[in-house]
Input
Amino acid sequence: MTNSLNLPIDRASPVPLYHQVVKGIEAAITSGELEAGSKLENEIDLAASLNLSRPTMRKAMDELVRAGLLVRKRGVGTQVVSSQVRRSLELSSLFDDLVQRGGKPSTEVLTFSHLQATPAICEKLALAPGSKVYHFTRLRMVDGKPLALMENWVRDDIVKIDESTLAGEGLYALLRTGGVNFRLAKQSIGAAVATKHQAGLLEIDSASALVTMERTAVDDKGRNVETGQHVYRADQYSFEMTLVQR
Amino acid sequence: MTNSLNLPIDRASPVPLYHQVVKGIEAAITSGELEAGSKLENEIDLAASLNLSRPTMRKAMDELVRAGLLVRKRGVGTQVVSSQVRRSLELSSLFDDLVQRGGKPSTEVLTFSHLQATPAICEKLALAPGSKVYHFTRLRMVDGKPLALMENWVRDDIVKIDESTLAGEGLYALLRTGGVNFRLAKQSIGAAVATKHQAGLLEIDSASALVTMERTAVDDKGRNVETGQHVYRADQYSFEMTLVQR
DNA sequence: CAGTGGTCTAGACCACTGC
DNA sequence: CAGTGGTCTAGACCACTGC
Output
């Protein structure tokens, strides 16, 4: 009743072995080779059959447990999470759905300026009072249909931004190209009722519900690079997440 | 410029060594002994100075990196995340804030029944069509002020529930007492405008914004034990989360 | 009791960074 | 180049589960 595994492990590859195992088990689960709910061989035998050490095998399985694909219990064993559960885990946000189904995302820059930041923004970005920042608002669309209104403030001492580069490339691509390595982001998700201005831009009735998101992103040097307030059409967007018991 | 560590490690304790290290470093950061932004000793020396093996030291540091307290870079070293960033990471939801500040949470059971589930609920709980479930609605308050309206459906083949036990104990405590070990939950967060009924119960103007949350929780046997729809007053509640770059 | 995952050791070699 | 984290090995002993 337990599943052995026959994964392609390439020791010459630059891809870490544990990562190859993660991808291999993921694929076996997706293809149905590893059946929903079925038990895996114990991790010691599994490691041996792939010619891997147990810690490497365990590291791979840890990742799959954290991703919600496997469930482990001491003294008992490791199981593939049931397909019914997995389907629900795989649900992504409506927006991602739209994009995955072939929708074309696009972004329109509505306003752009380079100005002195308010005290509140200085605090969020950990800048000295009076520092200058880029400030801009953008409208995010899928298949020409408006989905989100995004307002952002970005430090001006890392990457030079202007309206045309922003329109062409997208904020995160632009910052990454400029050498920013993001490490952390703090997000807060809430709700609001659309103002007339927002409703007009998002093409919804005023007094419709909006999902609101505030985010501050930090790079590997500890700089708060960017902060923003986004609002999404509640009829088109929700945040999906999987919580795994630790 | 690098920080050594002098943590109390108790090898006789049943608490795993790596967990003692996590707690110790957390405490050192909180107390200011490890300064914000400062560099730690390299992990090999750190392990040696605590008489631990490197893998154990690394496991502890992995956890702190995932929690957003440390930042690592290959070839460079490990740093304590700056205090400015950390403060923002430590922000919790408004509701938790209220409770931490000494607010008293309480729950009122509004309706309770044991009935045949709709097809939609059967699908969410992976039950055979026509199965019976517990269905109830509750009002969650802090200091007597309404914050959330919760509607839940629970399988009836695991734990016997009635209105009085639910009112006394809380749903999750009740299920845990009944031997349920939760493993996964799938959550979806969105927004809506309050109906008149909701507005009345939550003591807000109708047409106010609500944060909506749908959740299905799965136990270690792969059973979808519980599903629910909760709505929160948007002026009192938001979901806070930290994303760590993997 | 046998079987399983949980923790831990004492090493090794490599890849990347910054000088 | 020296210093750092990233990956990997081949074991060991323990704690928990279910019979």
Notes: The longest helix of chain B spans residues 17-31. DSSP finds nine helices and eleven strands in chain B.
